[in-house]
Design brief:
- With 228 residues, the chain is α/β, with parallel strands linked by helices.
- The chain has a single domain (3-223), classed as TIM Barrel.
- Helices cover 41% and strands 18% of the residues.
- It has nine helices and nine strands.
- It has helices spanning 3-21, 40-48, 59-68, 87-93, 103-112, 142-150, 170-189, 205-210, 220-223, and strands at residues 30-34, 53-56, 75-78, 96-100, 120-127, 137-138, 155-161, 196-198, 215-218.
- Strands 1, 2, 3, 4, 5, 6, 7, 8 and 9 form a nine-stranded parallel sheet that branches.
- It is globular, with a radius of gyration of 17 Å.
- The chain binds pyridoxal-5'-phosphate (PLP).
- Pyridoxal-5'-phosphate binds at residues 34, 36, 57, 79, 163, 201-203, 217-221.
Amino acid sequence: MTTIASNLQVVRTAISAAAVLAGRSAGDISLLAVSKTFAAEEIRRAYLAGQTRFAESYLQEALEKLAVLQDLNIEWHFIGPIQSNKTRAVAEHFAWVHSVDRLKIAERLSAQRPLHLPPLQICLQVNISHEASKSGVSVGEVPELAKVIAGLPNLALRGLMAVPAPSEVYAEQRAAFAQLREIFDGLNRQGMGLDTLSMGMSHDFTAAIAEGATMVRVGSAIFGERIY
Ligand SMILES: *Cc1c(COP(=O)(O)O)cnc(C)c1O
C-alpha cells in the first residue's frame, strides 16, 4: 500500500470514530482531499485508493492538474480566494466552490456557469471570530448574502464554510465550529434548506464532526506536509 493510501485509511477511520463519538453516522460526513501543492500523480494515487472528491486553492495550478487527470472521474472543489478575473475558469471547471464571500463573485459564477453543466454547488465562506484569513463574509452579512445567492439561476447554495484560526485546544476548536453551526441552523430555521457544513481540516476535523460538519477538508493528513 502507498503512504497516501494508508494515510487515507487512517483518516477515514478517524472520521468514523469521530462520527460514532458524536452519535452520528459516518456516511453523513464526506471527505474532501485537499490536494493543493501536490502533484497530479499523488492525486491519482489517492483516487486509486478510492478517493473521488478533491479540492484545490490556486486556480492556475489546479487547471494544469485537471488537464492531466481528465481520465479520472473526480469531483473537483475550489476552496481558495477568487478574484473576479478568475470566475469564468472556476465556473467552467469545478463542481463546487466553498469560498464565495461576495455577491459580485457569485453573480459572475452564475452568469458564467456553462448551461450544459449542473448548477455550481456553493458554500459561503464565513469569517467567524478567530478566522485565520481575512477571507469570508462577516457573520452579520450572512443572511442577506445567502438569500440573494440562493436566488441566482445557475448556482445551488448548499451551505457554509469556515477556516478558524488553528488551535491545539479541543474546546476552542469546538467553540469556533459551534459558531458556524449556529449560523447554519439559523438559516435553516428561516427555510434556507442548507445541507452542507464544510468545516474541519487535518488538525481539527474531530472537533468539527462533533459540531456537525458534513464535509471535512483534509490535506496534509493525507498527502503529507506541504512545501510551498
Ligand atoms: C489547505 C486548506 C485545507 C487543508 O488543510 P490541512 O491542514 O492540510 O488539512 C482546508 N481548507 C482550506 C480552505 C485550505 O486552504
